[in-house]
Amino acid sequence: MRETLQHITAEKVGFNLAQEARVTARTMRESPTVLEIAARNIRTYEAETLEDHVVSYFPYFRNSYNGENRLFRLNSKIEEDLVIKVIDPQERGGAVVEGFTKLEQDMSKISTGFFLWISPRGPAGSEGVYKNISYRYHQVYIGEITKDTVDAYALKADIDEARLSEWVHLVSRGEKSPDPKNAESFIKSPVVLSCLDGENAITKSLLTLRTILSVAGRNQFYKDTTVDEVFSLMKKQGMKQEEEVRQLRDRLSYELSGFHTGGEAHMGEVLGRHMIALYSRYQDERGNVPLKGCVGGSISINQLFGSRLTQESGGVFSSMYRVASVGAATISESCNKISCKKCNWEASDEDVQRIQKGDLKACPKCGWKP
pTM score > 0.70 for this model? Predict the structure, then answer.
């Protein structure tokens, strides 16, 4: 069991089980409510990496840190739980860190309101793993700001960049006008508005987008999903996801009833069993699990091969989330190599593709079958 769980890493499947177990174990000693966050991270991973939903929801917390109002993944005031910690400085040459910092600073100036922040499609960066990744779709972040929390929704979109720029311009009341041909211009132009009813502001902003798109003769937000359907999907998916989070939290609470004597290893085994169950549920007849939008395309339930990533999960604002949700490999070297456990034959990139398609089911050198 433990040998299998060692393969559930950010490098291989986009989920850092060891990090999740370490953070959950540390925080659970202080507050059992952290199990809800662990359940939410698992559910968010499923929604975006395995189900490919247009909408994903993740609540964040607003707490004081060094005299400033900051965003946290947990309801804590610990530095490592800051949202900025799960945004990789290498992503898009640091533009994402700069854009999120601006978003966070603008949020800190208001008590309640609305926000809109767009990470457009295109190259994910020129350094590290990002030089081999291109975001296939836009990631539109939108949500409600309350006194203590930020309800963040991540929406996939394939709208023309010029229409998105017009949307940002109108929603920001003319203060922001990102260049449609410059991804960094969007990322560095978050919109934060002070208002009493953030949910109403979301509705109004989507109505504005519908008007913009109607002039261009379309109403699609993402693939066949229309702008009119987006808000209802946000409510529906948010409620569904919250109910599933509660159910998973209760199961984790039951399984960890004796946690105080188990430590991080026990925590890793409990969380890992749920990850294995997810992969088993989504595997096809050949044992392959498609990773929607992930670099590498799929993993084998037997071999657990995948992409080279380094960020732990951290909600919809994280670099890990964007790669898993809308990322795609641009060159084949992003795939890990597969080797035969019997004779050590190593598959080429072409062999990997044949294995993924199910055309190569045994080692061509010794005939061993996994």
Answer: yes
